[in-house]
Amino acid sequence: MNLDSKIPEGPLKDKWTNHKNNIRLVNPANKRNIDVIVVGTGLAGGSAAATLAELGYNVKAFCYQDSPRRAHSIAAQGGINAAKNYQGDGDSIYRLFYDTVKGGDYRSREANVYRLAEVSANIIDQCVAQGVPFARDYGGLLDNRSFGGVLVSRTFYAKGQTGQQLLLGAYSAMNRQIAKGKIKMYNRHEMLDVVKIDGKARGIIARNLVSGEIERHSAHAVVVASGGYGNVFFLSTNAMGSNVTAAWKIHKNGAFFANPCYTQIHPTCIPVHGTQQSKLTLMSESLRNDGRIWVPKKLEDAKAVREGRLKPTDIKEEDRDYYLERRYPSFGNLVPRDVASRAAKERCDAGFGVVNNDTNEGVFLDFKSAIQRYGKEEAHIKGIKNASAEEITKLGEKVIESKYGNLFDMYQQITAENPYKTPMKIYPAVHYTMGGVWVDYNLMTTVPGLYAIGEANFSDHGANRLGASALMQGLADGYFVLPYTIGDYLADDIRTGAIPTDTPEFEQAEKEVRETLEKFVNNNGNHSVDYFHKKLGRIMWDKVGMARTAEGLKEAIKEIAELREEFWKDVRVPGSIDEMNQELEKAGRVADFLELGELFARDALEREESCGGHFREEYQSEEGEAERRDEQFAYVAAYEYTGKPSEAIMHKEELNFENVELKTRSYK
Amino acid sequence: MSTSKGMNLTLKIWRQKNANAKGQIETYQLSDVSPDSSFLEMLDMLNDKLINEGNSPVAFDHDCREGICGACSLHINGEPHGPGRRITTCQLHMRSFKDGDTIYIEPFRAKAFPVIKDLVVDRESFDRIQHAGGYVSVNTSGNTVDANAIPVDKESADKAFDAATCIGCGACVAACKNASASLFVAAKVSQYALLPQGQIEAKNRVLNMVKQAEEEGFGPCSNTGACEVECPKGISLENIARMNREFFSASLK
Ligand SMILES: Cc1cc2nc3c(=O)[nH]c(=O)nc-3n(C[C@H](O)[C@H](O)[C@H](O)COP(=O)(O)OP(=O)(O)OC[C@H]3O[C@@H](n4cnc5c(N)ncnc54)[C@H](O)[C@@H]3O)c2cc1C
Ligand code: SF4
Ligand code: FES
């Protein structure tokens, strides 16, 4: 099969406008006869569902939580980018485009990224009109902050709850359509398969998680907005229910899966505390605006800190290694995430880790300088002469509190340490997956009528995503891109009429879903689902995590396949399929992770270079910086399912860079 | 890894097979719980044990496990979200308990939150209140005015934000002797009442949302303030006062 990205002709900056002018539209009267299924109600799915309904389509939306408002987008903290240039610091659509392509280590599609930058400003207008309470300055105008990997302030935020506020905005837009009857909402429903008729996506099989009933739902097109698959690592910053099931099931039905190995390991998360741990918590990247990252310079100091014999605040300035400032003087603590994460790993591997856990993995994030700096500024503003050290600290802490108060509280809650008084301890954790379902410029997968948006697709971030760009992408896809591009496809369906569900295709799909579920509950094995999930996570983290080698990846592929076999033989799922059964839900998700993990490792093995979040130890410079190999690897790897995950057929979409020059990413 | 010794606990948990079944409290023993674990991790441990012993695990709602999605909803030792202040159940850590403690765990109780299974309740009544008016009627086409063309004074913006941080967990309802949803409704009404974008539909919004809450079976507000105490997001009673003002002025016309 030939991969056609359907990138429109013409100069970069005109592509989207021209494309919009040329695609077919469905007239409003006909939209009433067309049904669209949207799986997922996060920023991507929620915004798409609302907009499609406003346009006149009949939308059926699904989420596994008890309310669309609980999708994991709710947890995004730091902010959302937009090329508004409100700060007058030289930002522009081109600069946001350029930063994103560069930040993605030249592994994304220029045309998609440019479109994203182009619609970004609209997102902010839209959200403000909806009543999203972004942070404002004293003049009543919108405030901005800066994020890693860029030199301008273009991030809009609502304290540390930006995702929550944006999602509640999309949820409110959905509510308006639910009230009008244009969206039918299916809460506590999980999509377990897609149904194809004559090669086109025409519906899904979903399980009602309350009654256990297996349901058939038909539509003229299906949109998958099911989020990322970071939970393949077991421990991640994703929600407990975040999964790959919807994306994986469509992969098994013909949708290619792209760049599965591109994973973002976020540098600022709370370190692992123990074996009972179920998830990891992110401390927003915005903290790196004011926090300085360091470890002790002396091995014996690091050891003493771990053993509780030495307090970090007692380590003298000259005995601290601010390693990001040292290695990357121009970006310092604001280097992109992949760079910051690897640098932390490098220090901890060398023995300078400061946390007393299995692996001693953890570094300091210190706000002392910022507190002093802000304290002095405030004293000056308030006209306090000869402020005492104590007063300055107090004033500074106030400023820090107003900026990051909720994050500091969250940290204290989890660790029982006060980050105003002692530096935070942080360590990288799995956070986001750049890889995902392959889509063309219209966001359609390789299956006609089947779309993927938001984190579930692979589209815009290349090998590394910049902070505050996922929210932007989710809303761009859902509010401004998909609702237009889908019309081009649906224009052929105005006379099709409702899709019946009493057909052999639905029958067959439902039967297979039921059989798998029955298999789980009748298996009577010896171990719970979590037992296998944790084992998978361990393999992924050790061999397919922050640093990868050919040897380790080969082992991982083998070990995952073995673990999968063991899982199917020995998993124990209590209860039955026709009731609320949370273990059964987990079992289905882990079964899919066990397949995805294998493809993931295979992809990492194929990509013999280091780029963005993908670091192969064999490909690095003498100073330990990643080495890309553009000649051979400037392509998107899109996999076609054939049965065994690691034997999928790889299709290459070559990436052509006509508007930016490929450079070694340097943040020095 | 924690160096402190694990705790032994007695857990008294509400078990109910489904919405129609009769429920009862069951007693479980759990040992070697790390004080660094979260409350839900402690329940994970219990479930693992129950599964390994061939028993059915305890169903409970949860997802983000960082206090923002609003899914977790336990009544712990008689308090929604347990003994901590300004935190959700998932943010509660076992260091808040002592070795040897007995802990009672029940679902949120309210007529409008029927139990689905064990500790899981149905809170879709909250969604329906939002359908009744929790939005600004603006299309998502992007053809709106420039964001900075609508300045909002910082104080109002900050207050609107504070109200908007409600996570829809329902602890306010569970804490209230009347099972009133006033704090929840007031949070949404206030967010829009404080912003220029919300003005046009202000009257209908407050009337419709309050009416829907009544129809769902939430009780009246008697200004006791238990909701504010238990609210994990610190949503203030001020919002209820603002909602009442909005309601009266809307009812007058
Ligand atoms: C802790 C954290 C902080 C972050 N902070 C930022 C930030 O500051 N800025 C930024 O830009 N990005 C941030 N991100 C990334 C960003 O939040 C996500 O990438 C983005 O929100 C994903 O949105 P989505 O709509 O694609 O998916 P999600 O919001 O994850 O939604 C997925 C939806 O799919 C549904 N679903 C999944 N599977 C199924 C199924 N099988 N059947 C039915 N429904 C299903 C779920 O119920 C849910 O409704 C953060 C991420 C995390 C985890
Ligand atoms: S007002 Fe507070 S307690 Fe009530 S639903 Fe909102 S966050 Fe929960
Ligand atoms: S699990 Fe999300 S708030 Fe507790």
Structural notes for this entry:
The complex is a heterodimer of chains A (668) and B (253). Chain A has 668 residues and is of the alpha+beta class. Helix content of chain A is 38%, strand content 14%. Among the domains of chain A are: 159 residues, Flavocytochrome C3, Chain A, domain 1 (Alpha-Beta Complex); 125 residues, Up-down Bundle (Methane Monooxygenase Hydroxylase, Chain G, domain 1), CATH 1.20.58. The radius of gyration of chain A is 25 Å and the shape is globular. Helices cover 33% and strands 14% of the residues of chain B. Classes of the chains: A alpha+beta (668), B alpha+beta (253). At the A-B interface, helix 3, helix 5, helix 6 and helix 12 of A face helix 1, helix 2 and helix 3 of B. Bound molecules: flavin-adenine dinucleotide, iron/sulfur cluster and FE2/S2 (inorganic) cluster. Flavin-adenine dinucleotide (FAD) binds next to helix 3, helix 6, strand 6, helix 7 and strand 15 of chain A. The site of iron/sulfur cluster (SF4) has 14 residues of chain B, from helix 4 and helix 5.
CATH architecture of the largest domain in chain B: Orthogonal Bundle
Radius of gyration of chain B: 21 Å
Give the termini separation of chain B.
Answer: 63 Å
Largest interface: A-B, 84 and 84 residues
Shape of chain B: elongated
Biggest sheet of chain B: strands side by side, in what order? Answer: 2-1-5-3-4
Strand content of chain A: 5-15%
CATH topology term of the domain at 270-428 in chain A? Flavocytochrome C3, Chain A, domain 1
